[in-house]
Design goal:
It is a single chain. The chain is mainly alpha-helical and 356 residues long.
């Protein structure tokens, strides 16, 4: 397995930059996991937004045309029998696999069987891909970039079909050994795995989309929970040229002693750094608003604003169709999120909007 280590044997300056990036990412990881442990309702909304962005960006990178708004409507009203276009089929396939990963990542191993199963699910609705979904390729393929002007460009050649099984087995074994032994930092293992997966290009189609899903899987398995709430795929779509250039820099020396992937590794880690800044900005907006409210809670807020100070009995009288226990929980949540405050205790408590 020395062939892998040689590719990440970077110079001193690169290693120092990598250490700085990893330190920053791990520091945020610890802080964010505390935030997530509070199970704030707003996190659900952040995840919904990130999911739409991830689906839209990852499929558009490969040539799909659906906008995020169109994808949002499709997911609201989807019926399998109505997936007539390839774009719609790819969107729903990506959505299904992303949800599988987020809900089950602890139980999904990095193995040939799981990777092939995820690929099969990814292309589940794509009628064009019936013959090869879930199986390694049996024809040569190349990495082709789709540019906004509609042109395509071959980025690099990939592993020939008769070598795919062996190369994927080696990569999977190496990654699992590194993660189990903690010999290398999991972010290095993840970045390296994705580079090698893209270089091997083990499937006839869907490699780019699956590589981004596997990125999410590997990060979640290493407890980088924040990746659920901000879209890696969206950042790649916005920096597609840099993304391909980083891959090509290693690929130009593929299978030689000169193959080094420092540009790819730095791109990967710097992308995570950028994602963290994006997520912090989104979360700051949340804190300034005082939290996420559902429709019922918005009505409670408006009632308090108009009639404050109010007692629980006032609220129950105004909203007689809602149980008193639900109203109590809503008031407690809104206090926790610093939207309202209370004065007094027990039945004597009155509620007011919290001053900003």
């Amino acid at each position: 397995m020395d062939k892998y280590i040689a590719k990440i044997n970077f110079d001193f300056q690169t290693n120092q930059l990598i250490l700085r990036l990893i330190s920053f990412i791990d520091s945020f990881k610890g802080k964010w996991n505390i935030v997530e442990s509070k199970e704030n309702v707003f996190l659900k909304e952040l995840r919904k937004i990130a999911t739409i962005e991830s689906i839209g960006s990852s499929t558009r990178i490969e040539g799909a045309k659906l906008t995020n708004d169109e994808i949002k409507e499709l997911l609201k009203n989807v019926k399998i029998t109505e997936l007539k276009t390839r774009d719609e089929q790819e969107v729903i396939g990506y959505y299904d696999v992303l949800e599988i990963i987020i809900e089950n990542y602890t139980n999904i191993n990095i193995s040939k069987n799981y990777i092939q199963q995820l690929h099969q699910n990814l292309l589940k609705y794509s009628t064009k891909d019936d013959r090869h979904r879930g199986s390694y390729k049996n024809l040569s393929n190349k990495v082709v970039a789709n540019y906004p002007d509609g042109t395509q460009k071959v980025i690099f050649n990939t592993t020939e079909p008769h070598l795919v099984e062996s190369e994927m087995n080696d990569l999977i074994e190496w990654a699992n050994n590194q993660l189990e032994s903690n010999a290398l930092h999991p972010l290095i293992v993840t970045g390296f795995f994705v580079y090698e997966f893209l270089s091997i290009h083990p499937f006839q189609d869907g490699n780019g989309r699956l590589s981004r899903l596997l990125t999410n899987l590997l990060l979640l398995k290493s407890n980088y929970q924040f990746i659920q709430y901000v879209s890696f795929e969206n950042l790649i779509e916005q920096q597609k040229k840099t993304y391909y250039e980083a891959l090509m820099d290693g690929q130009k020396d593929r299978n030689t002693e000169q193959e080094k992937i420092e540009k790819w590794m730095l791109f990967f880690l710097q992308s995570l750094e950028s994602l963290i800044h994006r997520l912090e900005q989104k979360y700051d907006v949340f804190k300034s608003k005082g939290g996420y409210l559902n429709e019922r809670q918005k009505k409670i807020r408006d009632f308090i604003k108009t009639n404050q100070p109010i007692k629980l009995a006032d609220l129950a009288s105004s909203m007689s169709d809602i149980s008193i226990n639900t109203l109590k929980k809503d008031l407690q949540y809104m206090k926790t999120e610093q939207i309202i405050e209370s004065v007094g205790k027990n039945k004597g408590s009155v509620y007011l909007l919290k001053e900003k």
